[in-house]
Amino acid sequence: MKLNELRDAEGATKARKRVGRGIGSGTGKTGGRGVKGQKSRSGVAIKGFEGGQMPLYRRLPKRGFNNIFGKDFNEVSLGRIQAAIDAKKLDAGETIDAAALVKAGVIRRARDGVRVLGGGELNAKVTLDVAGASKSAVEKIEKAGGSVKLPQNGA
Question: What CATH code is assigned to 74-149?
Answer without folding.
Answer: 3.100.10.10
